[in-house]
Amino acid sequence: MQQKLAINDGTPVRTAPWPLWPQPAAGTSAALTEVLSSARWSLSGPYRGSESFERRFARDFAEYCGTAHCVPAASGTASLMLALEACGVGAGDEVIVPGLSWVASASTVIGVNAVPVLADIDPDTLCLDPAAVEAAITPRTRAIAVVHLYSAVADLTALRDIADRHGIALIEDCAQAHGAVYRGRKVGTFGAAGTFSMQHSKVLTSGEGGAVVTDDAGLARRVEHLRADGRCYPAAAPPVGSMELVETGELMGNNRCLSEFHAAVLVEQLKELDEQNARRARNAAVLDELLAELGCQPQRTSPGTDSRTYYVYAARLPEDALVGADIAKVNAALSAELGFSVVPTYRPLSLNKLYDPASRRRYAISDEHEKQLDPSRFPLPVCERVAQRSFTLHHAALLGDASDVEDIATAVRKVLDNSAELGS
Ligand SMILES: *Cc1c(COP(=O)(O)O)cnc(C)c1O
User: Fold this and answer.
1) Residue 412 CA, ligand 1 centroid: distance in Å
2) pTM, whole model, 2 decimals?
3) What ranges in 186-322 are assigned the alpha helix state H?
4) Based on the structure, what is the number of domains in the chain?
5) What is the pLDDT of residue 1?
6) What is the pLDDT, as a whole number, of residue 32?
7) Does residue 136 share a domain with residue 81?
8) What residue ranges line ligand 1, CB within 6 angstroms?
9) Residue nearest to atom 15 of ligand 1 (CA)
């Protein structure tokens, strides 16, 4: 049907508001008030006779993930750097990361003086392609930092196998996948460590925040020290009024602690995560069908995924539609129809203006190191192809009911039917 597109001043498919994110959990105000009057706003404050919210969240989240240990941290970025260092990654080492991800996937690796090796992705899951990982391994490879991107779980069976065969660490960056289940277990439990972000946009959030989960007591203890200036919790609580953290000097660290306010928010938000994940998955299933009818290919998850979560909903345009069209313009047209931000995937890290190690003097360690960090040395044809053909929506779009996702499909149909207006 010919209809003028909203981006060209036509009538939009939808003007009704969308669900907002974040949404405070029921107990949040009470928990924050408790922290305010507790005289303890950080774990690096005196013990006041009750468990810190930070420890409470660590216990709750470890139980949720099914791991023995959880160490909260200030951000996902901090968590990933802590996990890398706790796995022994440092100067001169290489870490394999996906070529399509948030910039932190690579910037955290250079942050621990190692070299990110960008590997290509699987075109259907948008996660690391195990064959590309295998091909990227060198004698200097120390770890694989896999990302479960958008709403898919990476091929953990294959990646775990590669890591084991080469004797390198597998770190799962679960910043986009809190609660996803693969072969009967939560993500974050398949490698040496799993890391999480609780930044504003994520499905579990306190505005800023993060965590490392692991079954390895030694690794957890190293993470603890690394994130609290070389201090850790004692085996037994100290007298009220004295500092709880003990200065062991086992391992030098930096302050990457999560505040008590953030931890209190997370304790409450975690209680609502499963219900929200289920709601998003129900709506995504409806949207998958509607978009498949239009010839689009929704992002797939790896075989073996029992339950996926939706941080971002991603789909590829039909093969024969909008060929040659500017993908930014296609996404802008969808945004205009919906009154909701629809954006292309991340730019591949080899072409991403946010990933520019040469802009930071701290990484100019040697000419050779600088050459190693040059992202343009990694060819990423699948990342580039996918990035030119995809659209994505933040998970807030999935928090309403089925009529919301019907609007999304209607907008996609309208843009496909009127592609001539976009110059293709
Ligand atoms: C958000 C994100 C991070 C970084 O988390 P912050 O809390 O923003 O520092 C790292 N990796 C991925 C895949 C992310 O999506």
Assistant:
1) 29
2) 0.97
3) 217-227, 260-293
4) 2
5) 59
6) 98
7) yes
8) 75-77, 80, 101-102, 104-105, 147, 173, 175-176, 197, 199, 210
9) 175
